[in-house]
Amino acid sequence: MSKLTRTLIPPSQRYSIDGLLDLLDLSHGDALSKRTGFLIMLVLSGVIAVAGVLADSTATVIGAMIIAPLGTPILGIAAGIVTGHPGLVARSVMWVLSGLGIVVVIGVLLSVFIADPDVLTTNGQITGRTSPRMVDLAAALATGTAGAFAMSRKDLSAVLPGVAIAISLVPPLGVVGVCAGQGAWNEALGALILFLCNVFALVIAGSIVFTMAGYARNPHASPTTNRKRAYSIVGVLAILIAVPLAVNSVITIYYARMTYAIHEATGAWLDDADIDYDIGSITWTNRNANVEVSTEDGSLGDQSKLESSLTELPDWVTVTIHVTPATSHVVYGGS
C-alpha cells in the first residue's frame, strides 16, 4: 500500500478481506440471518418509502432511506469485481434485482390510494426524482465513495446512516412503482434512471476505493489482472450512466430556457396590452407549453403580438394560454 493509501485507510482500521466479505456478502457467514434481515428491512423500507412519497413527507422518506438495506449488495458487486469473485457479483446482482422488484411492486400496489392522478405533477417527492441530471451522478459518486470508505475502515461505520440518506436507493424505486401504477411511464422511467445512476455510482466508487484499499490483492488472481478488470468495468459503467444523464441534463436546461423565454414574452405582451395579470405555472406536456394566466375579467390582448414574439422558439413547440378571471371572495369578517 502506498503512503497515501495508508493515510486514507490506515492498516489498523482496515477490514480484512474476510471482514469485508462478511459485511457485504449475504451468503458469507450466517447466511440465513443475513438474508431474512435483508428481506424484512427491504419490505419495511419499501412500504415506508412509498407511504412517504404518497404523503409527500420528507421525514418519512428519510426514515426509509436509513433502514433500506440495498446498499449492502450493491457494494457487494464492487467487492466481487475487485476481488475477482464472479459468484459474489452474481449473487449481489440477484439481490439488487430482487429488491428492485419488491419495492416497485409495493409502489404499484399502494398507488391505488392516489385519489387524483394529477397529484403526480405536484408531489415534490415524485417530481424531484423523475428527471435525473449530471449533478445527481456527481452527488452519488461522492456518497458512494463515503460509503466505500466506511465499509473499508472500522472507525467510519458511524457515517453509514448519512450515506444511506444521501444515496437514496429505495425512494426512487417507490416512485417507479407509484408512477407505473398510475400509467405515468415517462416519470417511472426517469425515477428508474435515477436509481440506476445511484447503483452505478456506488459500484464505481466502491471499486475504486476497494482497489485502493488493497482488496484486489487476493491469492486467486494477480493484482494487475484484477486492477485491469476493475478499471474496465468501472469505465463501462461510467459511460453507461453518464451518457443518458448528460443528455437529460442538456434537455432539462433547454426546456428551462424555453420556459423562461415564454414567461418573459407573455409578461411583455400583457404589459403592452395594459392588462392586470398574474402568470402562474408553465408546464410542459410533451412538446406543448401550458401557460396559466389570470386576468381581471379573463380577457387577453391581441394574441398575434404574442405569437410574433415567440418566433424564436422551435417550430415543433406549441404554446397554449389557459386564462381564468381573477376573482376574490370574502370568507370571514367584514362586519
Summarize the structure.
The protein is built from 13 helices and 3 strands; from the N terminus they run ααααααααααααββαβ. The model has no long low-confidence stretch (mean pLDDT 82).
Morphology? elongated
What is the average of the pLDDT values?
Answer: 82
Number of strands: 3
Largest sheet: 3 strands, mixed
Q: State the distance separating the first and last CA atoms.
A: 82 Å
Unreliable runs: none
For the record, the count of structural domains works out to: 2
Individual helix count: 13
Strand order of the largest sheet: 1-2-3
Q: Which percent range describes the beta-strand content?
A: 5-15%
What portion of residues is helical? Answer: 55-70%
Structural class: mainly alpha
Compressed to H and E, one letter per element, the order equals HHHHHHHHHHHHEEHE
Radius of gyration: 25 Å
What does this structure look like?
Keywords: Membrane, Transmembrane, Transmembrane helix. The chain crosses the membrane at residues 36-55, 61-82, 94-114, 163-185, 191-213, 233-256. This is Putative hydrophobic protein (TIGR00271 family). InterPro entries: DUF389. The termini are far apart. This protein has 335 residues and is mostly helical. It folds into two domains: 3-221; 255-325, K homology (KH) domain (GMP Synthetase, Chain A, domain 3, 2-Layer Sandwich). Helix 2 packs antiparallel against helix 5 and helix 5 packs across helix 11 (185-212). Helix 13 (303-309) links the parallel strand 2 and strand 3. Strands 1-2-3 form a three-stranded mixed sheet, covered by helices on one side. The chain has helices spanning 3-8, 17-24, 31-54, 58-67, 71-83, 86-110, 124-127, 134-152, 160-167, 170-181, 185-212, 223-272, 303-309; strands spanning 277-285, 288-295, 318-325. The protein has 13 helices and three strands; from the N terminus they run ααααααααααααββαβ. The longest helix has 50 residues, at 223-272.
